[in-house]
What we know:
With 289 residues, the chain is an alpha+beta fold. The chain has 2 domains: 2-163, Sandwich (Jelly Rolls); 166-289, Arc Repressor Mutant, subunit A (Orthogonal Bundle), CATH 1.10.10. 43% of the residues lie in helices and 20% in strands. The chain has helices at 98-103, 118-129, 133-136, 141-159, 169-186, 193-199, 204-215, 219-237, 242-248, 254-265, 269-277, and strands at 2-7, 18-26, 32-36, 41-48, 50-55, 58-63, 67-70, 76-80, 87-94, 112-113. Strands 1-2-9-4-7-10 form a 6-stranded antiparallel β-sheet. A 4-stranded antiparallel β-sheet has the order 3-8-5-6, with no helix packed on it. Helix 2 (118-129) runs antiparallel to helix 4 (141-159). The protein starts with a strand and ends in a 12-residue tail after the last helix.
Amino acid sequence: MKYAKLVFPKNKVNNELYVCHYGSHQVNACGEFGPAKRGYYLFHFIKSGKGVYYVDGKSFELSKNQGFIIRPNEETYYRADERTPWEYEFVAFNGILAEELVGSVAWEDGYVVTPENYARIRRIMNSMVKIKDDELNKSGGGNYQLIGELYLLFAELIKNGGCAVYAEENERKAVLNKAIDYIKEHYFEELEVENVAKYVNMHRSNLFRLFKEELNVSVWQYVQNLRMDMAANLLCNTDLPVYEVANRVGMPDYPHFCRQFKSFFLETPKNFRKNFTGGQSYDKKAKTL
């Protein structure tokens, strides 16, 4: 593999979003990388040629003007085409806002983008790669430019919503309803967001985006809201001990359940039951689904 350029910034501007490294690769025929896991996000944009990207049991044949994302702690492998090996520019990044930014992009099948605005994305990537190492270590101006280009990149990727797998409204609603039905059938188990994502065959970041856009809550918050609602109903309509109510809504950690319940309804489970049985109606006081 030929590294046309590879730069590692020495200073982070802040912890919200920062660049780990960036550059460009001109890859030899059948040149490969991996299998490997990383501790950061890594976006590639293909300037020319072709290759294959393998992740999460899926394979993507990619070519010029397409991009792909690598997420932290996911095992990935990619290989250049034998006849027309690819050349790409890339940026590795991380930070508090990184997951939200990546989750806001309409990745095809969770990992790939084929943008209509590819020319603008190419210009941004090219501008980023042109920032020299010594510009990053003078007065800090180069570091701010680097972060600025990264924000511009994601602004363009997010605007490119037309290539989402579930772009059609009816299909989006069908996937959302399928996910909600699954949550309602399994909320009392040790349910993880990854379980829901696999059931609807969507990457968890795209599922997060779907829930935020349609319901204004994350997938996990929807699960927790449902658990609190079901716990309130059990407290109001049964004589089950509070610890048993916690078990029945999938929260066997009793102290954690009590803290979550108080945060949600602004009072402890015992006081909630006492107030309800004293004539106060259950009206989902604090938050609703």
